[in-house]
Amino acid sequence: MAMMTIQIYNTATRQKEIFEPINPPVILMYNCGPTVYDYFHIGNARNFVVADTVRRYLEFVGYRVRFVQNFTDIDEKIIRRAHETGEPWDKLAERFIEEYFRAADALGIQRATVHPRATEHIPQMITLVERLIARGLAYVVQGNVYFRVRHFPAYGELSGKNIDELEEGARVEVEEHKEDPLDFALWKAAKPGEPSWPSPWGPGRPGWHIECSAMALTHLGETIDIHSGGCDLIFPHHENERAQSMGASGKPFVRYWLHNGFLTIDKEKMSKSLGNFFTINEVLAKYPPSVVRFYLLSAHYRHPLDYSDAALEESRSAVGRIREAVISAEKLFELMDPAIAPPSEAEPSTEVARFETAFCDAMSDDFNTPRAIAAIFEAVADLNAWRLKLVQDPRNPALAADVAGLINLIHRLLAVLGLDDLIFGDSKQEHVEERQLAHELIDILIRTRQKARELKQFTLADFIREELSKLNIRLQDLPTGTIWIKD
Q1: Same domain membership, residue 366 and residue 278
Q2: pTM across the whole model
Q3: Could you tell me if residue 314 is inside a domain?
Q4: pLDDT (tens digit per residue) in 443-461
């Protein structure tokens, strides 16, 4: 497919912009991954699903995406949880990395090109901090290193915050030995009982923000195309990450900042700190992955999405309508004359192609998944109508071609949203089970025919042979019994 004009809402400029990557067809994309101290919750899942869907669409239209999603495997939360459980901090992090992959795989989230871990990049972080110190943008106090916020003129441009109006609060680290309360930690001096690494400033560990800067720089370079994450990361994490990266390189860090909106419960942000959250395990125990992923894509990624059982049930119903329409149409072809079935590589007709155009128009407009899903449902409605016409006119090759083309297109478009395997994966297994059942039924008919022959009911025995022959199933009576062959 030819690359389309794509518009992306850029958080940094607060407007939609035409997407122009640095070095097409390659796209460099970084998404903030989980801090692995617990199971991620359904609100976190929205970030991962959104980033995965953006990546899938970019690849669908012809780009090659180098996608990096990190693991924060050392920070205060991990240390605190390890103390609570008595588990070594690194074993705890490893366990929840495995749990992330298990749940992400279930949701159809593709593995990143690289999944870097913070603890594997300590040398790169130290080098980055040294560059900031050399440029006068950082300073050392008692083994800690801080970034001089007021020495970076562009600070606040991403989040839209005026540096003079920023006040000390929950999101700003307050320590007496800082030059300025707004300065944030790049390196933290070791505390008793905490993991640490050697550095020019003494043993310690990295600050959260420097981790992502170092990993993005290592795996994508000094300037990247897209950086995504939840809107709660805009300040201070992404603001600080931007300041560090640009301060060290003197170059633009990110061309397009993409942030998804909150998942809410009763219109209040879902978060672990508020206690109003459901882990992904809890949600997947109640709803199939296809339903959960469909729900997470049912609203535009920048808009808030309220979590409720009613919303998930609506998604379950929607997924069911898609599944029933496609499977019913596919089974219709199994009953048709093979001579009428169109070749799988046939070009879609204009009637079929219009749904792909509508889908791509939606996705190219800042990844508007609700409109894209609406285009799929329009295709599903036509599929149901065309299928009924084909039942009435089963020898119409043009109609059969359109039905087959529409089935294939719906599969392709669902795959862009990461839904095809989730919706139809079970049906593939069902198809295997149906074939096994068909074999068992044939064996039952063969035994029934044998019993009829023993009872001298030859008319019934011949009827069974003839009916099976009409299905291209040929029987061979051997001294040891009867076998069947599919012609």
Answers
A1: no
A2: 0.87
A3: no
A4: 889 888 988 888 999 899 8
